[in-house]
């Protein structure tokens, strides 16, 4: 059992900060927690768990309801501020909404961070399936249409660094977790002009993705259209959705340059 107050100086400060974030992450994963539950989960004294929870409560980041603590909605404010700082979000959200409405499918906007695809905005059309991608969700880049669209336009040196430093994700039996297969898939994606996610993240789900670039060619994110494999495997449907996706990406790129 670890007591963060038993350390000295800077080491103690770092330990306290690390523990505070661990508790915030734990509160994100559960509906609520009690002092004893938290102490057992993180293997810390109950007095320490209580101190952290009371501090979070006093700062407005946790709510105490009859001795059980949950995250407050203050976290949403920070998340909203961060998202609004993305120019891509500002210029892309209305286009995501429009494309979802016109195609009837799920449309997502994402950016790369630390080897993962992070969703910054999404919308669902009337025929959309629920594809379990809440705002802020993170998935290894090699598993999704957005991720592969981004990777396919990275420089050779950047892609090599990614492959050397990041473990390739694997979610289903269809996931491309072998380096040679991933590289071959990215080459095909560049030649095709768009990425295809074929049950690599979720069985029964297919998606098409395209990178969003600045005028100098730098990739700043990507957009995808997602739907059931049965529907998106049809050639005519694929061609129609890819054309609509391409037009939307072009609009976003132009708006991004003018923002």
TrEMBL record:
Keyword Transcription belongs to the record: yes
PROSITE patterns (UniProt xref): HTH_ICLR, ICLR_ED
Residues in HTH iclR-type domain copies: 14-73
Keywords: DNA-binding, Transcription, Transcription regulation
Positions of the IclR-ED domain: 74-259
Origin: domain of life: Archaea
One example GO MF annotation: DNA-binding transcription factor activity
Pfam family, one: HTH_IclR
Listed GO biological process terms: negative regulation of DNA-templated transcription
Protein name, UniProt field: IclR family transcriptional regulator
Biological source species: Halosimplex carlsbadense 2-9-1
High-level lineage: Archaea, Methanobacteriati, Methanobacteriota, Stenosarchaea group, Halobacteria
């Amino acid at each position: 059992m670890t007591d963060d107050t038993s350390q000295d100086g800077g080491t103690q400060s770092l330990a306290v900060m690390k523990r505070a974030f661990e508790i915030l992450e734990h509160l994100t994963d559960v509906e609520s927690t009690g002092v004893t539950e938290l102490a057992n989960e993180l293997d810390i004294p109950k007095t320490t768990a209580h101190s952290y929870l009371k501090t979070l409560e006093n700062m407005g980041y946790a709510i105490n309801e009859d001795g059980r603590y949950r995250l407050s909605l203050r976290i949403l404010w920070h998340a909203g501020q961060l998202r609004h700082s993305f120019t891509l979000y500002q210029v892309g959200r209305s286009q995501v909404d429009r494309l979802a409405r016109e195609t009837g499918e799920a449309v997502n906007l994402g950016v790369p961070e630390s080897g993962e695809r992070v969703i910054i905005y999404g919308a669902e059309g009337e025929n959309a399936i629920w594809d379990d991608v809440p705002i802020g969700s993170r998935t290894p880049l090699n598993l999704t249409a957005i991720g592969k669209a981004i990777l396919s336009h990275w420089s050779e040196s950047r892609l090599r660094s990614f492959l050397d430093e990041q473990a390739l994700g694997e979610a289903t039996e269809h996931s491309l977790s072998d380096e040679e297969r991933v590289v071959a898939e990215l080459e095909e994606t560049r030649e095709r002009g768009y990425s295809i996610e074929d049950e690599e993240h979720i069985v029964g789900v297919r998606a098409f993705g395209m990178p969003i670039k600045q005028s100098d060619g730098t990739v700043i994110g990507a957009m995808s259209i997602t739907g059931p494999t049965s529907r998106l495997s049809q050639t005519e449907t694929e061609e129609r959705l890819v054309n609509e996706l391409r037009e939307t990406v072009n609009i976003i790129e132009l708006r991004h340059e003018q923002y």
